[in-house]
Each structure stands twice: as C-alpha cells, then as structure tokens.
Amino acid sequence: MSEPLHRLTYYSRNNLTVSPEAMTRAIEQILDAARRNNARLGITGALMFNSGCFAQVLEGPPGAIERTFERIQRDPRHRDVSVLEFIPIERRTFDAWSMGYVGRLPGQAESYANVATRSGFEPSLMSGETLFEALRQLVADEETAPA
Ligand code: FAD
Whose C-alpha in 5, 30, 73, 134 is 20 to 30 A from the C-alpha of 54? Predict the structure, then answer.
C-alpha cells in the first residue's frame, strides 16, 4: 500500500523589518533549510512571499508535516501563523519541488495580490482551497516559463 499523504496550507505575517535585499537573502535562507530538510522527510510544496505575508503548502506523510510545521511555527521570522487546511490527499501536486518558490515572474505578485485583495489579507477569510489553487497555478506558470 502506498503511504498516506496529507496537505497543509497556512498563511503567516512577516516579522522581519529589513531592506528588500535583506528580505531576499532571508527568503533564500528559508528556502535552503526547507529544501534540505524537506527532501530528507519526503515533503514537497510551495512557498510564496508578498506584501508582508507568507503562504505555504506542505504535502507528504502527516507525521513529517507535523514535525516540520512545529519548527516552522516557532520561527521568529514570521508570526500569526494560521492553518487554513490540513487534509488527506490522494496524490501530490508539487511532486517536483522540495519547496518551490513563486514570485520570480512578472505579474505573479499581482496574481497573488488579487487573491489577497479578495480576502482583505485576512487569513481567516481565505479558504485553504483558494490559497492552494493560487499557489498551484503560480507554480505551473514557473514551470512553463523560460529560465
Ligand atoms: P538551520 O537552518 O541551521 O537554523 C538553525 C536555527 O536558526 C533554527 O532554529 C532557525 O529557525 C534559526 N534561524 C536561522 N536563520 C535565522 C534567521 N535569519 N533569523 C532567525 N532565526 C534563524 N523549514 C523546513 O524544514 N521546511 C519548510 O518547508 C520550511 N518552511 C518555512 C517557511 C517559512 C515562512 C519560514 C519563516 C520558515 C520555514 N522553514 C522551513 C524554516 C524553519 O522554520 C526552521 O528554521 C528550519 O526548519 C530549521 O532548519 P535547521 O534545523 O536545518 O536549522
């Protein structure tokens, strides 16, 4: 039997008040740790940062997600971590990404802003499904864009 899979979707607020360059470096550090740890634990997913908020999808074995998310929640680089969804899934969506990062392409920040505007940037008003779908679409755009 194949391993059970879950998907966790959350949203949080940036705690770092730094220059855009320092923020880019901070995100690189987060992605380095995420890719190193997630590959080992069988976790895949996507991360987005925009307008002071992070949004992330983690998918993989539920125990590995829980352990990883406990670390993420304690991270002082963000706050107000709000889980929108933690559900069983049949297959991975981000199977090529130990942690994909979206935001590189022109227009992506805008797409995310549209999602955020509809919810007024209130995690409590944003559904897990909406956020997951937005990240899925943005990652698909990354995959088809020229390097
Ligand atoms: P290291 O990367 O070696 O870090 C050692 C310790 O220092 C950790 O406690 C870390 O939290 C802390 N630290 C490192 N750099 C800074 C800094 N600049 N400011 C403050 N504290 C710092 N980790 C994952 O494994 N998978 C993920 O998918 C993942 N997603 C994340 C998403 C977000 C939005 C954020 C903010 C963090 C995420 N992290 C993720 C990082 C996670 O919170 C831990 O920092 C990381 O898992 C610790 O990895 P490590 O044990 O290899 O420690």
Answer: 5
